[in-house]
Design a protein that fits this description.
Number of helices: 15
Largest sheet: 7 strands, mixed
Strand order of the largest sheet: 1-2-6-5-3-4-7
Number of strands: 19
Strand content: 15-25%
Oligomer: single chain
Length: about 450
C-alpha cells in the first residue's frame, strides 16, 4: 500500500485527506504520463457525493492542462468506467467515488487501458509527483491544451451491454432494487425495466449527502423489510459506486457475497460454464461456503482481501468466477472488475433457468456465525507485529480447531484492524473476538 493509494484508490475525507490540490496533481501527472507519444484520451465517471463534482473539475483542469482530452460520463458506476475504457480505446479511466464510505469521504480510482486497476508502479510515480519528488511537468500550450467532451453515450452503451447479457426475459418477476442513493440510481432500473421486470426501487433519490445513508449494501436490512412487506420475488442492494451487490431472497433473508458465489458457482457448473471447476474467494469467505462447495464437488482458491487480488488470480489461472463476501463478484467473461448490476443479472439467470427461488437455490448452504469488529489504531503495523497479539491469535486458533477460525487483518483504506471470528455459535464468536480486541487495547496501554 502506498502513501496515498490503498487497495482501492486514493481515498479519504474530502478536503481533509483528499483535497482538490491532490486531484489536480493526479490529473496533471496522468495527462502528462499518457500523452508522451500521442494525445491522451481519459474518461471520467463519478458517484453522487457532493464533493464528486469538485474533484471532477479539479481532475479535468489537471488533465487538460497537461494536454489530455477528457470525456465525461457524469454520474455512473465504477464497472461502467471499466467497460468504456477497454471498449472505446481510452488510455485511462478515472472513477470519483469512495464506494461504501459515508458521503463526506471520496476517492479517486484509476483504471488502466485494459479496464483493470492501475498498476502499483504508476501509482508510485503519481505519489512522487504529489510529494514534489519528481521534476515539474510542462504545461500544454495553444492547440495542445486538452478539450473536454460530454460522453453520456458511453454510459448508455454500458446499459445496452448489460441488457445484452441477460439470457431470458424477466417478465412476471417482481424485483426490488436498493440503489444506495448512489451511482446505480442512474442505471439499474433502466436495465431491469428493459428486461421486462416489475421493478420497485428504494434509495433512488440522491441529494449529494445521502449516499449510503441507512441504505444500500451496507444497510441491507431496509431492503429485506421492503421485500417482505411488498411480497417481492428477489431484491438487490448496491453500494455507492455499484461495484458490489448483496441480495435478499423472497423471505427477506440476506444473501451475501459468499452465498452469491455458491448459487452462481453451482449453476455455472451444472451448465458447463465454470472454468477449471473453481471459484476464487478471499480469506474472508465463510467456512460454510467451502463445506458447501466441497459437497457439490467444486474446488476453490483463496486470495488476500481485495477484488483486485481475486481478479489477478482469475486471469493468471483462467478462472471465470470469483469474489468477496462483501459483494464484489467478478464474472471474468463479462467484466474485469466487480459489477453489482451484472451480479444481479446472473442471479436472475440462475433463478429463471432453474425455475427455483433464491432461497431454494441456497438450501444446501449453511453459513457459520461470524463476527467482525473493527478496532481503531494509530499504527497498524506496530499492532500486527506485537508478540502479545501473535500469542492470542495462536491460542484462539488452537481452541477453535476445525470448527472455526480467527482472521486478523489491517484495513487497506482506513486506520483499522479487522478482527473476525467464525464458529459454530454466536457465543463463541463474541467470546473470541472480545479476547483479541482486549489484547489490542492492552498493547496501546503498554
Amino acid at each position: 500500500m502506498g502513501r496515498y493509494f490503498g487497495t482501492d484508490g486514493f481515498r479519504g475525507e474530502a478536503n481533509v485527506d483528499l483535497t482538490v490540490e491532490h486531484a489536480f496533481k493526479v490529473g496533471r501527472y496522468l495527462g502528462w504520463y499518457y500523452s508522451k507519444d500521442h494525445k491522451a484520451k481519459v474518461v471520467i465517471g463519478k458517484d453522487t457525493r457532493r464533493s464528486s463534482y469538485m474533484f471532477e473539475y479539479a481532475l479535468v483542469a489537471g488533465l487538460t492542462a497537461s494536454g489530455a482530452d477528457v470525456y465525461l460520463l457524469h454520474v455512473t458506476t465504477t464497472p461502467s468506467v471499466s467497460y468504456v475504457v477497454r471498449t472505446d480505446g481510452f488510455d485511462v479511466g478515472i472513477m470519483i467515488s469512495a464506494s461504501h464510505n459515508p458521503y463526506y469521504d471520496n476517492g479517486i480510482k484509476i483504471i488502466n487501458g485494459q479496464g483493470k486497476k492501475l498498476e502499483a508502479e504508476v501509482e508510485n510515480l503519481i505519489e512522487d509527483y504529489i510529494d514534489g519528488k519528481s521534476e515539474e511537468i510542462p504545461l500544454a500550450k495553444r492547440e495542445n491544451i486538452g478539450k473536454t467532451v460530454d460522453y453520456a453515450m458511453g454510459r448508455n452503451r454500458y446499459i445496452g451491454y448489460l441488457i445484452s447479457i441477460a439470457t431470458r426475459s424477466f417478465k412476471d418477476k417482481t424485483v426490488a432494487l436498493d440503489c444506495s442513493n448512489g451511482s446505480s440510481s442512474a442505471i439499474a432500473k433502466n436495465v431491469f425495466d428493459a428486461l421486462g421486470a416489475k421493478t420497485l426501487v428504494i434509495a433512488n433519490e440522491p441529494d449529494g449527502t445521502n449516499i449510503n445513508n441507512n441504505c444500500g449494501s451496507t444497510h441491507i436490512e431496509n431492503l429485506a423489510k421492503f421485500v417482505k412487506e411488498n411480497q417481492v420475488d428477489v431484491g438487490f442492494a448496491y453500494d455507492g459506486d455499484a461495484d458490489r451487490c448483496l441480495a435478499v431472497d423472497e423471505h427477506g433473508n440476506i444473501v451475501d457475497g459468499d452465498a452469491i458465489m455458491y448459487v452462481c458457482g453451482v449453476y455455472m457448473k451444472e451448465h458447463g460454464q465454470l472454468n477449471n471447476n473453481k471459484v476464487v474467494t478471499t480469506v474472508m469467505s465463510n467456512i460454510g461456503l467451502y463445506k458447501a462447495l466441497d459437497e457439490k464437488g467444486i474446488e476453490y482458491e483463496k486470495t488476500a482481501v481485495g477484488d483486485k487480488y481475486v481478479y489477478e488470480n482469475m486471469v493468471t489461472n483462467g478462472h471465470c468466477l470469483g469474489g468477496e463476501q462483501s459483494g464484489h463478484i467478478i464474472f471474468s467473461k463479462h467484466a474485469t472488475t466487480g459489477d453489482g448490476i451484472l451480479t444481479s443479472l446472473k442471479i436472475m439467470e440462475a433463478m429463471i433457468e432453474s425455475k427455483q427461488t433464491l432461497s431454494e437455490l441456497m438450501r444446501d448452504l449453511k453459513i457459520y456465525p461470524q463476527l467482525l469488529v473493527n478496532v481503531n489504531v494509530k499504527d497498524k503495523d506496530e499492532v500486527m507485529n506485537n508478540q502479545k497479539l501473535k500469542d492470542i491469535e495462536a491460542k484462539v486458533a488452537e481452541e477453535l480447531g476445525d470448527e472455526g477460525r480467527l482472521l486478523l487483518r489491517p484495513s487497506g483504506t482506513e486506520p483499522l484492524i479487522r478482527v473476525m471470528v467464525e464458529a459454530d455459535s454466536d457465543e463463541k464468536c463474541e467470546k473470541y473476538v472480545n479476547m483479541v480486541v482486549d489484547v489490542i487495547k492492552e498493547i496501546y496501554e503498554d
